[in-house]
## 1
Amino acid sequence: MKIAFIVYPRITWLDMIGVFDPITRLRLYKYLPDLSWNICALEQEVSDDFGLTVRPNQVGGSLAEYDAIIVPGGWGTRTLIEDEKFIAWLQTASPESWKISICTGSLLLGKAGFLAGKKATTHFDEYGTLKPFCGEVLEQRVVRDGNVVTAGAVSSSIDLGLYLCRTWASDEADIMIRYKMDYKG
């Protein structure tokens, strides 16, 4: 399995790291030994609102080769939702791939058309913004509808990561990784 973690200016890093940590442990603990990932962006460097900067290892290019794209939230989603180049880039993801978001990352998945007719969630302050992009907004921490999985506000990113461990590997993987993280949620 190959994952694209999508990053962009004004991201909320906890959205990204909360899901990244449990998922990458699937390879560490050999539940998915062939798991690979890239940090993908359209810029050479990406910073949050506080100046924490990350250099992606994949800049631009098609997302079609990935089995999953994961789109974290952040204040940057409010401007990217109108950025035709960014949305077109997301749309290069394969129709069969997993489309996953945390917090307001769902707004970007929605704008790209991936949530049409589907159940989804987002940050509780943005339920109204998400509504035109999906079939139904659910006030839940993690929502799955087919190959689309969305998570609520920032702390739900860890719940999402563990949900994906269980879905992609096993209940045993979820239990072991939860234990190693000392996560009781």
Note: The first strand starts at residue 2 and ends at 6.
## 2
Amino acid sequence: MKLIATANVKSRFPDLRDDHYYEAARSFEGDWKHYDKYDRSGPKVFVGEYASQEGRPTPNLRGALGDAAFMAGFERNADVIQIASYAPLLVNINKGASQWGTNLIGFDSLNSYVSPAYYTQQLFSLYHGDNVVPSTFTGTRELPYSVNKSASTGTLYIKVVNASAAPAPVTINLDGAGAVSSTGTAVVLSSAKDTDTNTINNPANVVPVRSKVTGVGKTFTYTFAPYSLTVLILNAK
């Protein structure tokens, strides 16, 4: 049994602290290192509720990228963040039926659809290792990112959020890696505008696209698309 504190507790030391965040996407993007300096002697963290408040009744791409930036911080600090859960999950899109502005999945009596923010959750769920890889970023405009690796397969997962309207070329140095396969995979959630979204009538307007990446090595350059969450999947022993 784990004790999760939903407020500051002084009478005992809880196992986890329950944190809640409902912010604008830009706020999450600017605060993606929130837990980098968290006191490692304190309780672990359950981010019990969080969501970028962008888009009604379900998030648009801007909201999805805000969530992705904050979640990159979760992954970077996986020694602290034990659990995280998006909220709320479901919304009836009929007029007058909703109680909360931004929700992950929309439905009516006959159909349902998932928002771009759902795909953010999906990509983080599907593509991750079991070891956080130490990483640094140098440049004039830092992009929210996380790097982790599967100990059993050697697969390296690099997640990068580019929430701006301009492409972002980045030189990636895999210092410390052994053999690196010359090809990899990119899974990209993006669209022409960050206000683009999915609806009950257009459920596949913003979806992840998978493609092959060539020219990979211990040092290579990759250009991250505007308004994008990118997962680079590399084989680096």
Note: Residues 34 and 211 are 32 Å apart (CA to CA).
